[in-house]
Design a protein that fits this description.
- The structure holds two protein chains of two kinds.
- Chain A is mainly alpha-helical.
- Chain A has 14 helices and no strands.
- Chain B is mostly helical.
- Helices cover 70% and strands 0% of the residues of chain B.
- The longest helix of chain B is centred in the middle third of the chain and has 29 residues.
- Chains A and B meet through α1, α3, α4, α5 and α6 of A and α2, α3, α6 and α8 of B.
Chain lengths: 254, 179
Amino acid sequence: MNCEETMAAIIDAREKGEAVLSTEADLHLAGCAACQKEAAELRHLLAEMDNTVFKPAPAALGKGFYDMLSAEMLSADNPVKISRRYAYLSAAACIIFLAGIGFATLLINRNTNKVAAERVTVNNGGEKENLLLTHIQDPSSAMRIQAVNEVESLSQPDPKLVTVLIQVLNKDSNSNVRMAAVYALSKFADDTRVRNGLIGALEKETEPVIQVLLINLLADKKEERVTHALQTIIQNPATRRQVQEIAGNKLRAL
Amino acid sequence: MQEISDETYMERVKNGQLANMAPLFERYHVRMYNFFLQLTHDKALSQELSQELFYRVLRHRSGYRPAPGSFKKWIYTIARNLHIDYRREQVRVRSDSVGEGHENIAVPPERYTETDYSRLDGALQELDIEQREVLVMSRYQGLKYEEIAVILGLSVNAVKVRVHRSILALRKVYFKNNQ
């Protein structure tokens, strides 16, 4: 083995996580003073490279991305196509950004695992209901979203859960939790209480993405009682232009 | 809970479910920001390129071809092209500023804005761009040779050779600078 092959063997060993070199490389090193120096430098360099950690991304990057995504979703007029489960995941991602990317990522993983672990032990609707009711009060937005996500597996709208979800939709301070609640409730949108809750939420909601989500959902259901809310949205100068256009289109189609 | 793959998210984005971009952004934005930062060593520029990267992913979603493990290679390919575009633009601007006949002028060194600028960073910036990008992808970003081969359009063996040569070149620069 020559000098070049010995250096390659050192790099290979590092990449494979092997602590010892091949016999041939060791033999060459033992008899080559130049290679011994180079090998020491190479090992030092490789160790330093391996110890390099990612620098945190600036918060402005996240804000810029979510602004861009919101604008794209609004212009595409397609939020209603998003499945509830994936809306949760994207909403959770928003929270990660808002709460501080690095820390919140760890938090979200921990919470997800915690709720998922608890879900394994839940066998019936009553326990699931209790799980949701417990976690929906959690100070962590990620936990609240995950709790709302649990409703997906219910086949029938439980009255107590519906009441809680409507409260979440109307009162939760985090828009991503509210968005998750919209998707959870959309599964039961033919239920009278749910429908009334969705209409009431549209009248109060100011977050453009959720406004569009509710507009599309209720318009798809041919819900004529939403007319007043749509007119309010159209006439409100504070409403984003794209939302007003969508509301106008849906109003004309009703 | 089974983790949803990048490919599943991206396929849904391609199919119009744009909110699925959010989890992809959360998975990739730190590493992509660092990819640009390690190539340019400019925080503001890296932020700008990262922003543009996710914009391109979203805008060019219809061009995504789903396959196992395809998303990572796809986004790195876009990121690399973005960096190449930036460098070409730098060359063009510089060429315009000095008049005709200077198209082959070397790309000027990027701005170093890091206060914690390490000697290793400095040595890395002294390598040529082909060596730097292959080291960034393999040693810092943790891409496999097979993945880098697809991104660069090279054989796996060619990538391995380039990585090895780049490491040896970096060693020379690093220890020369430290003497």
